[in-house]
TrEMBL record:
This is Serine aminopeptidase S33 domain-containing protein. The active site is at 95 (nucleophile), 196 (charge relay system), 223 (charge relay system). Signal peptide: none annotated. InterPro entries: AB_hydrolase_fold, AB_hydrolase_sf, Esterase_lipase, Hydrolase_4. It comes from Companilactobacillus farciminis. Pfam families: Hydrolase_4 (PF12146). The lineage of its organism: Bacteria, Bacillati, Bacillota, Bacilli, Lactobacillales.
Length: 245
């Protein structure tokens, strides 16, 4: 069975554009529903594929990608939208992407507003994110029918040997971004699922306390708000935010 690989997307829908950054074990596909919704409502939407993601080899994320590369991609993506002559640029991120969306609001004057979904900022523990990545890696390898059980176990051991260092580098970056939250003066959307198992929902309240311009939205849902049962309400709330900022 041939598995179609996810692709980055750019949906041209208007002079205002929204950059959408996906999660650690996700792809641009997690942003596609929101992207099409925004396009239908006269906003352009761009979701790049973060380095290492979107392949059938989870080790690519651990070996080829990292916070420095992903931050450079975020900046390059903002430049891409400027080259497309977009007059207003917003940045939103899901989970891992939330770190870089927030960093963009802290550091890049071209971004006028933005926000986060299922953000790891102000989270002390990243062990659940590690566990989720291990589950993701095993699922990806299990879909490769030419792998024997022995080969699958060997690959999982390699993932296990490399995941801690990557999580540590992400956590370090997250802490650095969290320390500058109070500097954000632009409108900031916070979307958080109350039954999120990957990040502590209570941390969203701490982020809201730090960012005086924030709007905090809780949803009766889990982590991936862009595609789970909260996605329709999230889309409506994001559109309202964009139209008023």
């Amino acid at each position: 069975m041939k598995i179609l690989r996810p692709q980055p997307f750019y949906f041209d829908g208007g002079t205002s554009a929204v950059l959408l950054l996906h999660s650690f074990s996700g792809t641009s596909n997690d942003m596609r529903l929101l992207g099409r919704f925004l396009q239908r409502n006269n906003f352009s939407a761009y979701a790049p594929m973060l380095v290492g993601h979107g392949t059938d080899e989870p080790l690519d994320i651990l070996e080829k990608g990292g916070p420095d590369q992903w931050w450079r991609q975020t900046q390059a993506s903002i430049d891409f939208l400027k080259q497309k002559q977009k007059t207003k640029i917003y940045v939103f991120g899901l989970s891992l992407g939330a770190i870089f969306a927030t960093q963009a609001l802290e550091e890049n004057p071209d971004v006028i507003a933005g926000g986060v979904f299922g953000s790891p900022l102000h989270n002390q523990e990243f062990k659940d994110i590690k566990s989720a990545f291990m589950t993701y890696a095993k699922k990806v390898y299990s879909l490769q029918q030419d792998l024997t059980d022995v080969e699958l176990d060997a690959k999982m051991r390699v993932v296990k040997s490399k995941i801690d260092n990557k999580i540590m580098s992400i956590q370090k970056t997250s802490v650095g971004v969290t320390e500058k939250l109070a500097e954000i003066k632009r409108p900031y959307f916070i979307g958080q699922g109350t039954s999120d198992k990957l990040v502590n929902p209570e941390a969203a309240k701490l982020v809201a306390q730090d960012v005086k311009t924030s709007q905090l939205h809780f949803y009766d849902a889990g982590h991936v708000l862009t595609i789970n049962r909260a996605h329709n309400q999230l889309q409506s709330d994001v559109l309202n935010f964009l139209e008023n900022n």
